[in-house]
Automatic annotation (TrEMBL):
Gene3D superfamilies: 2,3-Dihydroxybiphenyl 1,2-Dioxygenase, domain 1. Residues 4-115 form the VOC domain. The keyword Methyltransferase applies. It comes from the Bacteria. GO terms for biological process: methylation. SUPFAM superfamilies: Glyoxalase/Bleomycin resistance protein/Dihydroxybiphenyl dioxygenase (SSF54593). Keywords: Methyltransferase, Transferase, Ubiquinone. This is Glyoxalase superfamily enzyme, possibly 3-demethylubiquinone-9 3-methyltransferase. InterPro entries: Glyas_Bleomycin-R_OHBP_Dase, PhnB-like, VOC_core.
Length: 284
């Protein structure tokens, strides 16, 4: 399973509780546990849970869980609705015999779907292109697959007419694409939702060198994107990415808290992560 790319969810001190919650529901496990970062593995896939200044999470980025049986859908739904809110009631829809969209107690939204997987990946981040991004899902897939190696655009379903749905027939109802072998879904939506992409849910790209770090940083922040701090960028659609060298993750996982604190302080002063500067801080 490709764990070079994975989602990060921002929490206001609740990362530990949410990690236990998700691992219990989906049969996952905690693979890294620090004061700031907790990594969990669900269905063999990494999700980073980050304690920091919370941004309200919303359905512009949701998680599709592709289930094998109706009982599996029901089992996840029953647990997620404890403190959660249904966005689309669990039921039968044209695209699935059993499907529901739910916001859990922590504000994360899940689409539970009975159907065939587009790849070997069971949990798939799903991007909703709304407001000024509505109609740009196709362009976004081209943008992402151009930047990342081992990428491709898969099946695309468009809205068939502008009737009751009110959607442009050329806009994307559902599409699958892969970036460096990692599956994602996307869709256009014309509804005037009171939310959009923000830092609440971002995508992490783990890199192996300064050259690779610079490449993804420049590529994703360019063409109308923006450079943020601490390795974060926003692309031209407003989706947040974290470009992190593996070496930096090793340094902040060191058992020596003083060394870790020096590294974190150095990261806080950076935009793009400079590996040699972190190593100097670590060894200072």
């Amino acid at each position: 399973m490709n764990n070079n790319i994975f989602p990060c969810i921002l929490f206001n001190g609740d990362a530990g509780k949410s990690a236990d919650f998700y691992c219990k529901i989906f049969g996952g496990k905690i693979t890294a546990d620090t004061q700031i970062v907790i990594n969990i593995e669900l269905f063999g896939q990494t999700i980073m849970l980050l304690n920091g200044p919370e941004k309200e999470k919303n359905p512009s980025v949701s998680f599709m869980v592709i289930c094998d049986t109706e009982d599996e859908v029901q089992r996840y739904w029953d647990q997620l609705k404890d403190g959660g809110t249904a966005l689309m009631d669990l039921g039968t829809y044209p695209w699935s015999k059993k499907y529901g969209w739910i916001r859990d107690r922590y504000g994360v939204t899940w689409q539970l779907f009975l159907g065939e997987k587009a790849s070997d990946q069971k949990l798939v981040p799903t991007l909703m292109f709304i407001h000024e991004n509505n109609g740009k899902a196709a362009d976004a897939m081209k943008f992402y697959t151009r930047i990342f190696p081992n990428s491709a655009i898969g099946n695309i379903s468009k809205y068939m007419d502008g009737g009751e749905s009110g959607e442009n027939p050329e806009h994307i109802m559902h599409a699958h694409f892969t970036i460096n072998g990692y599956s994602m879904f996307c869709m256009d939506n014309s509804y005037d939702h009171q939310f959009d992409f923000n830092e609440g849910i971002s995508m992490v790209v783990m890199t192996d060198s300064q050259e690779e770090t610079d490449y993804f940083w420049n590529s994703l922040s360019g063409e109308g994107g923006s450079e943020e701090v601490c390795g974060w960028v926003k692309d031209q659609y407003g989706l947040s990415w974290q470009i992190f060298p593996r070496q930096s993750m090793r340094l902040i996982s060191d058992p020596d808290k003083d060394k870790v604190n020096k590294v974190i302080q150095a990261i806080m002063k950076m935009k793009n992560i400079i590996i040699k500067d972190l190593e100097e801080a670590y060894n200072s």
